[in-house]
Amino acid sequence: MLDYISDKVQDETRQGEAFAPFTVDPNQYKKLFYIESYGCQMNFSDSEIVASILNKEGFGATRNFEDADLVLLNTCSIREKAEQTVRKRLTEFKKLKNAKPGLLIGMLGCMAERLKSKLLEEEKLVDLVVGPDAYRTLPGLIIEAESGQKAVNVLLSRDETYADISPVRLDSNGITAFVSIMRGCNNMCSFCVVPFTRGRERSRDSVSIINECRDLFERGFREVTLLGQNVDSYYYQPLQAPQREGMAYTQGQLKENSESSQSEVSAKVAFPIGEGRDGAEIVTFPNLLEKVALISPLLRVRFSTSHPKDITDEVLHIMAKHENICKYIHLPVQSGSSRILQLMNRTYTREWYMAKVDRIREIIPDCGLSSDIIAGFCTEEDADHKDTLSIMEYSRYDMSYMFFYSERPGTLAERRYKDDVPLDVKKKRLQEIVDVQGKLSFVSNKNDIGKTFQVLIEGDSKRSNKDWMGRSSQNKVIVFPKENYQFKKGDYVTVRVNDCTQATLLGQIIIN
Ligand code: SAM
Ligand code: SF4
User: Fold this and answer.
1) Is residue 397 within 8 Å of 72, Cβ to Cβ?
2) Three-state secondary-structure class, residue 324
3) 271, 198, 286, 261: which is closest to 241 by C-alpha?
4) Does residue 463 or residue 251 have the better pLDDT?
5) Is the pTM of this model over 0.70?
């Protein structure tokens, strides 16, 4: 079952992943850097921005930290365990630092932001502490650190989106890429540290997003995933865009439907939706999604993450309209109990969420659905936990990222509620959640036996180079024999499913 968790929680399998070297001869670089990334996909994406900034300064990437002049850890604070992993990793670099006194060690990302200069006291090894909005200042900070000073920049920004920085795609399969469309989060879910470590929500210039996606397509990429903590609230007005005011609702202000979120947006700007202060076009998420989809029918478009309160019918209709927008939504529920959802400040109820699932299935009947679930949040009782299990059954998730609650310093929950569910109870409930998800994934996969799917080939399967691995529009992994066909990575191929495991569909190429 643990295998199953790590199979399903893709982020977990990539924790601590290091970049491969640039394809060009690293000897042309004056120095080498090594970067390990932890946490969510946004962090992995940020590491590519950091790589691009360092690359311009004459740093080449190495996958071997012993060769590096600069070791960077791009960190995550979402759960205590994530921070512990990084601290443990730092002690492993100690020996290297002793043997190589000029070596610089830097801490980037959410942990840097959360702990700020305290990190320098706690972790004597660290020379640089750089928050997620300060990566442009890395070159200057490195010079400072080289002169023996400790260098810190953890300033959060209201407008930094790194829009003009073209990320260096390292360790890429050359077919699928992540494109960051916004940063920060205004939601204030009570358990979550992200609004404190990544700052206010801001949307990236839509033109730069479309250009990046088009450039990826022209370079042979065939799938882009638009990334943000809350992509459905993307909102960009060219030229001095007035960013949306905070969309965090207080407890009790449960939104009754997604249209009201939309009108809330228009209430916060002094001109009609669709037109900006100077008449420039305002780009909302459905507009952006359609613009990216129109780049080419051969470019698949995905997006993540959707907060249930913000995904509108308009988004669902755009998804249904364009075949190349993948029929898959990551719609984290967190809990199935309305009482717990209110304490979590999620701004929807159990019934509201279930109605949203119904709406998705009505507009996009073949849509894949996944979720994030937290077991053992403050005051959770057995009845609340049962509500979570039953909402999973109702939603029929194809997969879920599943966690037990970890109290984070400074969050609303830490300040307001007692972390009163004992660890063994949290773990027991999490295991029950994992078991239900295992069963749902297996049933969902079995239902696909006999069906055909258009699959984008991403590369060889992990187990054998005689098999291809790709994904269906619904984001399910499909493995199938290459046989004697001359397909290659990046091709679309029709595959009929004839068997499955809990995590993978197994199929065969069908030539019409
Ligand atoms: N913005 C996304 C959303 O709202 O769905 C995801 C943000 S977070 C990086 C990913 C997931 O981590 C959350 O959906 C939640 O399930 C989990 N998470 C966040 N804080 C947590 C905490 N304190 N303890 C356990 N899980 C947590
Ligand atoms: Fe955290 Fe909630 Fe924002 Fe997601 S939407 S990043 S869970 S505060």
Assistant:
1) no
2) coil
3) 271
4) 463
5) yes
